[in-house]
Every structure is written in C-alpha cells, then in structure tokens.
What we know:
By secondary structure, the protein is an all-alpha fold. It contains 12 helices and no strands. Helix 4 runs antiparallel to helix 7 and helix 7 runs antiparallel to helix 8 (190-221).
Amino acid sequence: MDFVAGCIGGAAGVLVGHPFDTVKVRLQVQSIDKPLYRGTYHCFQSIIRQETIFGLYKGIGSPMMGLTFINALVFGVQGNTMRLLGHDTPMNQFLAGAAAGAIQCIICCPMELAKTRMQMQGTGEKKSSRKLYKNSLDCLARIYNREGLWGINRGMLTTLIRETPGFGVYFLAYDVMTRSLGCEPDDRYMIPKLLFAGGMAGIASWLSTYPVDVIKSRLQADGVGGVNQYSSIADCVRQSVRREGYMVFTRGLTSTLLRAFPVNAATFATVTLILMYAQGVEEGPKDCEAAPSGHHTQIQQQAQPSSL
C-alpha cells in the first residue's frame, strides 16, 4: 500500500510542480547573450502568452512514466537500508536517503534528459513548425539511435552527485522536522505538520545541491540545436562561470523553491489520505502511541514522498 500511495502522491506532486520545473529549466539554459526571459515571473508570462498554458507542461510525460519505478526504488531501498542499519537516527535517515537517491539515478537520469529536451523544444512558439520529438519515448528512442546508451545517460554523473546527498538531506531534514514538531495521539494538526515538514525538507534538499542541478540541466540540454557546447562537467562549469559569474549557479532558483514546497505538500497530502483511508483513521494515532521513543517513525515510513 505504501508503494501505491507513493506513486499516486508522486503523480499529484508532478502535476502541481511541473510548470515551475519548466520555468526552472528555461532559465537555467537560456543564452546569456540573448536572454529570452528577465526572471521567473516574466518566464511564466512569456511561456503562457507564446506557447499557451500547455507550454508549461511540456515534457510531463517523462516524469509521469518514471514515477512508478522511481517510487518503487526509493521506498524499497530507503526502507531496507533503515532495517539494515537497525536504529532510527537522523544520521541513518541521511544514509538511507542517500542510498535511495543513488540507486534511483538509473531511471531518473534518462527521464530528466527526455523532460529537459521536451521542455526546450519549440521555445517561444505557440505552434512549433518543426517538432524534433513527438513525445518523451520518441525523444529517448531518437537519442539512443543517434548516440547509444551513452547518449540516453547523458548527465548521469551530475545526476548522481545531485541525488545522493540531495535525498540524504531530504530524509534527514524531514526526520529532524517531524521530531521537532512532534506527533501527539489526538493532534488535530498532524497532517498539516507532515505537510510542512515535507515542504521544508524539499526546500532544504534543493538548496544543498542546486548548483549541481544547473550544470546537469546545461549538459542535458547541450546539443539540442545540433552543436555541442560542452565537452565535460568541468568544461561546463568553467564556461558558465567565465561567461556569467558565480551567480549562474542560482539561475532558476526562485521557481525551484516555489515548486519545492507545493510539490512535497501535494505528495504528502495524497499519500497520507490514501494510507488513512486504507488503514482506518483511528489506526494512525495508535501507531504513534505505540512508539513513545520515536513516535514520528511510523508515520514517516508510511508517508515519505520520493519526489523532490
């Protein structure tokens, strides 16, 4: 049931957060010489005006398709790692989260590559005159035919560098937040507390690894126009800093943080409601009461989302 709830919760999170993600990617990879957007609000405004509201949802098929497998990996690896470590401590939460983050890169990297390519397609056009990719699957198939396995795993190292500590920080922050907020048996605000903890944990996670995400997006978008600009991660960092300064690592941060809270809030709300419906509303407080030394643990294991 955790798996099903996590998948549905993750889908809700993608629906809420994908427009912010599209804006983030557009801001991260736009040319410094001829920028199309002045900031987050202008980017939103321009996409809706030039490409309609559906422009904000370009590339949504890829994260939707990958959700089932990513949630299965994250929930399975995190839960099994916690059982192997034996004790529910903040450090073990970090290690378990980091392990889950590293494993799910196998699916996350190709999924985000297709998402990024689809989001960049037809930039500034209401009706794209020439679509290179029909959908996310077609995008991956074309990249595979042209570049092989190496091509569909473009950005794997940067994804690994981002996801491993990112998920570790996420689970650590969530653990610390839930311990601080507490879970009383008759607390009417249990669900809002979980939503708040998840949202803030998502923000903490993004802040800890955001510079890596900028480089990942640039590497995955590289070559869209037919010309490869970067030869390696180091080359991408060098060129980006030389042309745009160190502030380049904050490109799209506003839309990312605006996205982080509602995405995790939507995921938590959906997961929590499904589990409460399946197990019975009265069972939640009993679970909390049964574990006085770590009363947040049961709810945490049931309601952890896998989407940052």
